[in-house]
């Protein structure tokens, strides 16, 4: 039997000294991690660059120079920051800054700009576009003009007309005037084939009849030279505008009556008799949008009522929800109440349910004809909860109480539990009653924590668009107003109605109202927080 050799563990490697070079791991994991991170960063930046270049080309196509300049600067900043080793903080800040610029600062600045213009239906573009549209809208068929054999063609989803004039085939679309098509096939003075275009048959024309009958293909870029239109998809007729625009005098002249229309400060061509041509163009109107709601008798009355109701709704909503929430919080904060956790869980259910769905459910329950409240609870009563102005306001306050008290209950519960118990016990020992303790100790200590939340709740209810829109839609509506507004509209829902739901959309007026709302809410919040600071000092 041979002697066994004693196996000793190898000695640990010596730690490198201060002057020794740092050893790298031999498995190459550091290099792989670096390469993977660089590749991921490169892919993300390439994706951003691709989207940016697409946006730049789109902005260039529509000649939106402001957006074009912003995208170029943003792409330069992104590429410099993410490929630079000295701008490490910028890698985390640049996404948020870009979104802040686009979705906050730009929106605020653009709203301010629109508020001082007449932007809206009839004034939503430039003067050049208005001149072109006026010429198109006043076109009539030229008497004695030749009838053109017409072929309907299509390319990449775009419709066009192919006609034969003086023996030459020409093709055009709504955006591109007629131009010669040398390679087109002509049979019996009718175009039968055009390279790059699909000739539509009878069935295809019937499917797109509405689009074809409204299609207008101009002879040139000058609207006064007229265009070709068709009613049957096989025969074209020459149309020409009865209003002739003179670029030298910047006027329109009616060729039938001789009446002249000149540009006015309102952004329209107007005759001496006051006749207005539409559409117009966007112009600055100063503070007219801000003063209109006070000077226009048709708007001043409804605007005053809506303003009063907005303040009343916000104040009463905060008061009622806070009162109910505080009462329930005090009740279920008492250790003598059994099953407090179960009750608290049940009380927050209305808060957990989406608000817009709750409003829709309540709208059905409050229906005058077959709602649960009238039919079941009131035994078939016929009460217009949502059609009477005062009952509709009462219903809104009731539904908002249902939606809002759980939030106040949670807030007050947390604030009550933060009040030192020994303070309340000391007051009881001194002989203070329950009302005295609540009035002099509990409520002041509670308000220090809750007051900022009450201010935020007031601001939220001041702009509680969802409840109004889902429950009453702002109705019942006022009569004789130039915009569709109702007795239960808040200022914010009035803004929405002016901008989107009225027959004549007025974005300038809506933007001005938005700024007024911002000023009011900002002033109330400022005063409220100043009062809160004084309360904390006391």
Please give the structural blueprint.
Elements: H1 29-61, H2 65-82, H3 88-115, H4 127-137, E1 139-141, E2 148-155, E3 158-165, E4 168-173, E5 179-180, E6 185-187, E7 190-193, E8 198-199, H5 202-207, H6 209-214, E9 217-218, E10 227-230, E11 235-241, E12 243-246, E13 251-254, E14 260-263, E15 269-271, E16 276-277, H7 288-295, H8 297-332, H9 340-347, H10 349-352, H11 355-365, H12 372-377, H13 389-418, H14 421-429, H15 434-462, H16 465-471, H17 491-501, H18 507-537
Antiparallel strand pairs: 1-11, 2-3, 2-8, 2-11, 3-4, 4-5, 6-7, 9-10, 10-11, 12-13, 13-14, 14-15, 15-16
Helix pairs in contact: 1-2, 2-3, 3-18, 7-8, 8-13, 8-15, 11-16, 13-15, 15-18, 17-18
Which features would summarize this protein structure in a list?
five-stranded antiparallel sheet, 538 residues, alpha+beta, elongated, nine-stranded antiparallel sheet, 12% strand, 16 strands
